Amino acid sequence: MNLCRFSPPLLIAALLTLLAGGCSEQGSGSGEATGKPVVVLKTYAVTLHDRVEALGTAQAGEAVTITARVAGRLEEVAFSDGQLVRKGDLIVRMDQDEELAQLAAAEAQLAEHKREIQRLETLLSRKAAAGRDLDERRTLAAISASNIQEIRARIAELTLTAPFDGRLGIRRVSPGALVQPGTVITTLDAAGAIKLDFTIPSTQLQGLKAGSAVEATGEAQPGKRFTGLVSAIDSRIDPVTRSIFLRAVIDNTEGLLLPGSLMRVVLRKNERQAVVVPEEAVTQKQEKHLLTLVGADGRAEIRAVEIGLRAGGLVEISRGLKAGELVVVRGMGFVQNGKPVSISETWTAIPERDGAAEAAR
Predict the structure, then answer these.
(1) Residue 223: what pLDDT?
(2) Residue 59 and residue 16: Cα distance in Å, rounded?
(3) Which domains, and CATH codes, for the chain?
C-alpha cells in the first residue's frame, strides 16, 4: 500500500482504526487476571477453654498429727515408719497397769452388787427384806458401773489407735519414753485423694464453678499431669489481696503426690466450640481484625471479624466466621477484594505447632 496516495486526514484515521482493532483483540484474548496462587484453610470448630494459672499446695484428704493425750510412759509402739494402717489399728499403748487394776476391782465390785440385788429381789418377793435395802444396792451398782466407764475412758486415752485408714509417717518416739500431753508421736495421712488448695485473682472468677476441670503438675513428677475437679470455691474474696480461695480434689491412688507439695495449677473455664485460624492469617487495620476469604465464586473477600483467645499460634474467631469457609493463610498480600483467586493448596487441618494442641484441647 502506498501511503503517499492518501491525504493527511485520511492517513491519520486509518492509523487510529488499526490501533483500536489491535487493542480490542488483545483484551478479549487474555480474560480477567486470576492473580498469584494462595494457600487456604477450610475452617473447622475445635473445643476451646480459657486458662487460669495458679500455684497451689497439696493437702491429704484427711491428715492428723498423732500426739499423746496424757503424761505417761510408752509401753508399746505398734507401728513402723510409713506403715499403712486401717481405722482402729493400734499405734501406741502407754503404761496402763494401774488403770487395769482399778478396772478389775470395779468390775468385781459391780458383780457383787448385782448378786446382792438378785438376792434382795428374792427376799423382797417373800416380804423378807426392806425395799430401801434394794434401792441402796441398786444405787451402789450404778456408781460402780459409772466408775468402770471412767476407768475405760482413761485406758482409751492411754491407747492410741488410727482414726481413719491411711499411711503413718516417721516414728518420733521409742518404747519406754516418758511423754507429755502434746508430744508428737507420728503423723497419719489419707492421701488417696489430694486436696489442692490455691488462690486466683477475683477477676478470673467468672465462669468458674464447682466441677470445673483442673490440671496440676509438680516438680517432683516432671512431665506428669494430674487431673481433678474444683470441689469448692470460698464464699468470700480477700479484701486485701482481692483473691479468692479454691480447693480441687485430685485422684492419688498411685501415691505419687505427697502432702505439702507445691504444684502448678491450670484451670479450665468457659469451655466452648469455636473456629480458629493461624495467627498469620489475621491482619490488622487500625482497630479492625481482617481475614481474607475465598467465596464459592472463587473471588476474594476481605472481612472484618472479632477475635477471642490467642494461644499456641492460633486465634479464636469469636464472630464473623463459620466452620467450612475458606480462609487464605498464605499469599493474602497479593489478593485484592472482589478479584478472582487461584488456590494452589487447601488445608483441612492446621499444622501442629508448639502449644497448638494445648490451646485446642
Answers:
(1) 82
(2) 94
(3) 37-48+272-359 (2.40.420.20), 52-61+191-271 (2.40.30.170), 65-179 (1.10.287.470)
pLDDT more than 90, % of the chain = 56
pLDDT of residue 262: 93
Asked if residues 185 and 160 have their Cβ atoms less than 8 Å apart, the reply is: yes
pTM of the model: 0.62
Q: How far apart are CA 335 and CA 285, in angstroms?
A: 16
For the chain of 361 residues, list the mean pLDDT of each consecutive stretch of 10: 42 40 38 70 88 92 92 92 94 92 93 90 79 86 93 92 94 92 94 93 86 88 89 93 94 89 89 89 90 91 90 88 93 87 90 55 45
d(CA 221, CA 241): 30
